[in-house]
Amino acid sequence: MNLGGLNDLYRQLIIDHAQHPHHHGELPAASQTITLNNPTCGDVIKLAVTFADDRIEQIAFSGEGCSISQASASMMTDLVQGQTRAQAKKEIQVFLEMLMENPEATQDDPDELLGDAAVLAAVVKFPARIKCATLAWKALEQAISEEEAHE
């Protein structure tokens, strides 16, 4: 497959997640509910997480935003559902480093660790969209921190 075809495939994956988001909705009995917004473009993500035995038992998001923010939230919820908090924190770290082009980034392979969410690496070419892509991930990071603070 040529590079153009690969870019089209990645673009289609993002569009599919944005138009048909996974884990979209509310969790009335959530352990943690975090709402974050990106004032630059108006994205709002409300993330609800139910933790049980150090695992993300259930996760859902709602809110409004651009295709990048909605697709990123959908991909992130697919990835972390059922994982331990430590696993999710590692994935958050790798995702944020991938988008920030951090030279001290871990040696973990984003393609292997992040699944579909690794396609969002292309967002680094559009600095104004990085906050859109990271919004849900930062909400999960905050939810995990708040859950750990209540233990």
TrEMBL record:
InterPro entries: NIF_FeS_clus_asmbl_NifU_N (IPR002871). Pfam families: NifU_N (PF01592). SUPFAM superfamilies: SufE/NifU. Residues 10-132 form the NIF system FeS cluster assembly NifU N-terminal domain. NCBIfam families: SUF_scaf_2. PANTHER family: IRON-SULFUR CLUSTER ASSEMBLY ENZYME NIFU HOMOLOG (PTHR10093). This is Fe-S cluster assembly sulfur transfer protein SufU. It comes from Lapidilactobacillus achengensis. The gene is sufU.
